[in-house]
Automatic annotation (TrEMBL):
Membership in a protein family: Belongs to the 5'(3')-deoxyribonucleotidase family.
Name this polypeptide is given: IMP-GMP specific 5'-nucleotidase, putative
Enzyme Commission numbers on file: 3.1.3.5
InterPro entries, sorted: HAD-like_sf, HAD-SF_hydro_IG_5-nucl, HAD_sf
Domain of life: Eukaryota
SUPFAM superfamilies with a match to the protein in the record: HAD-like
Organism: Ixodes scapularis
Length: 257
């Protein structure tokens, strides 16, 4: 099977529609391709959930950037204020994000845009337009499963204790051989924690104690990331996510009260 059919996807979309949220779909795939997939996952009336749908018309290029044009082959069902009223049908044209914002009034941090490609989907929109962005990282579900496993938690706990022991004892005299044994055990534990995620290259989010390049780009261009958009069903529509304050190397770790 090439497409998964999330059981909660329809519930999630209907929840947003019932709350008067305006949803739109932008893709560089042709309508016929998208329609087959969406009919399978949601149903024949999937476009009724959306305010605007944009597809790739013919063989023309697609770009959702500040300079490039994006195809607006859309089925519009837009509200009265800045939008057209009750237009149903397919139209084909070229436009830019700026024109899209002018047509719809969807601007700045009032927009939450989801994509699974950090650069092509999210980077330009957050840097140049101030949209809120959400990244869909399907590997995250596997990573969290490993993080919560007893083997990983035990290994990391012992690794941290061992490293603290090495730091405290390394300057004592006549224990060089013992410290060397501890360092070898530490190296083995580091390899173990890495291989639990993937035997070849470890976690996509970190390499030992450092975030990967992928992680740094993800944190730079996305305001929130998750394994599936339906994860948001666990939160109310009024919920605000606040970033955690991480301690810098020269700062002390302040425990939660």
């Amino acid at each position: 099977e090439y497409l998964e059919k999330p059981a909660e996807l329809m519930t999630f979309l209907e929840r947003l529609k019932n709350a008067k949220k305006q949803m739109f779909l932008v893709t560089n795939s042709p309508f016929k391709f998208v329609d087959v997939g969406m009919r399978y996952m949601i149903g024949a009336d999937w476009q009724d959930l959306l305010t605007l749908s944009s597809f790739k018309p013919g063989s023309q290029s697609f770009s959702l950037t500040s300079t490039g044009a994006f195809p607006l082959a859309c089925r519009c069902k837009l509200a009265k204020d800045k939008l057209l009223s009750s237009i149903v049908g397919l139209c084909s044209r070229q436009g830019t994000v700026t024109q899209l914002q002018a047509m719809t009034g969807w601007c700045g941090n009032h927009v939450l845009y989801f994509g699974d490609q950090i650069y092509s989907d999210l980077a330009d929109l957050t840097l140049n337009y101030g949209w809120r962005t959400g990244a869909i990282i399907w590997e995250l579900a596997h990573e969290i499963k490993i993080l919560n496993s007893e083997e990983f938690r035990h290994t990391v706990s012992w690794l941290q204790s061992l490293q603290h022991l090495i730091e405290e004892m390394q300057d004592h005299d006549d224990i060089e051989d013992f410290i060397e044994q501890l360092l070898q055990e530490r190296d083995q534990l580091r390899k173990t924690t890495k291989s639990l995620f993937n035997a070849n290259f470890g976690s996509i989010f970190r390499t030992h104690h450092n975030p990967t390049y992928f992680s740094r780009r993800l944190f730079r261009y996305s305001d929130i990331y998750m394994s599936h958009v339906t994860n948001l069903l666990n939160y109310s529509l009024r919920h605000t996510f606040y970033p955690r304050r991480g301690a810098l190397p020269h700062e002390c770790h302040t425990p939660h009260s």
